[in-house]
Amino acid sequence: MAKPRVFVSSTYYDLRTVRDDLDRFIREIGYEPVRHERGHISYGREESPEAYAYREIDFCDIVVCVVGGRFGTTSSDGSSSITQKELKSAVERGKQVYIFVEDSVHYEHRHFQANKSVNGVRYSAVDDVKIHEFLEEVYALPKGNPVFSFSVSADITRVLREQWAGMFQRLLSESALKPQTALLEELKRNLQTVGQLVEFLTDQKGKGD
């Protein structure tokens, strides 16, 4: 039986406990977690491991991105971290994304926004100001990519449980409404046909026929 595949994106060393907790949670509800450190990504020799990680997102249904205070490994293009580029790749591919920002980083981001034009400001919650610059892009993402703050991994799993339960309920409701929707579409087409017929008969009557 096919299972939804959930790509877990985050820096590793500072968030490895969170990643382990997410792995257990995803398996407990019957989904399949995808983590690079567990060998879930199929690497080849034609491209860099980084490129295969981005490509693996194509084969996943959901992306959970966790943002902490560490920038992590810089991507090959040098413009962002690998974690940041994974999120950008997921958004570009139209994947359902859930973004979680560590509380300390989330609250400090307001301080960053108020002082980003001031030179020499130091931030304690992040090791690189690029994290706050990236969060500006995150909060500006289109609708459908919710952002939550978290303190412990249990906060993340609680939100995901509620979100995925809501998604499943919505799917069931939409499935139940399909017959009614099809009937309404058929009635709409019939009404359009009747309307065209009325216009034709009215036109003929006007000609005296």
Architecture blueprint of SSEs:
Elements (H helix, E strand, L loop, with lengths): L4 E5 L6 H13 L3 E3 L14 H8 L5 E6 L14 H11 L3 E7 H13 L14 H10 L7 E4 L2 H54 L3
Parallel strand pairs: 1-2, 1-3, 3-4, 4-5
Low-confidence spans: pLDDT under 50, at least 5 residues? none
Q: Helix amount, in percent?
A: 40-55%
Q: Biggest sheet, in brief?
A: 5 strands, parallel
Q: Would you tell me the structural class of the helices and strands?
A: alpha/beta
- What's the pLDDT, averaged over the residues? 85
One letter per element, helices H and strands E, the order comes to EHEHEHEHHEH
**Which value, in Å, is the CA radius of gyration?**
25 Å
What share of residues are in beta strands?
Answer: 5-15%
Distance between the termini: 65 Å
Instruction: Please state the overall shape, judged from the principal axes of the Cα atoms.
Output: elongated
By DSSP (H or I, 4+ residues per run), the number of helices equals 6
Give me the side-by-side strand order of the main sheet: 2-1-3-4-5
State the total count of DSSP E strands. 5
Question: What is the compact description of this entry?
Answer:
52% of the residues lie in helices and 12% in strands.
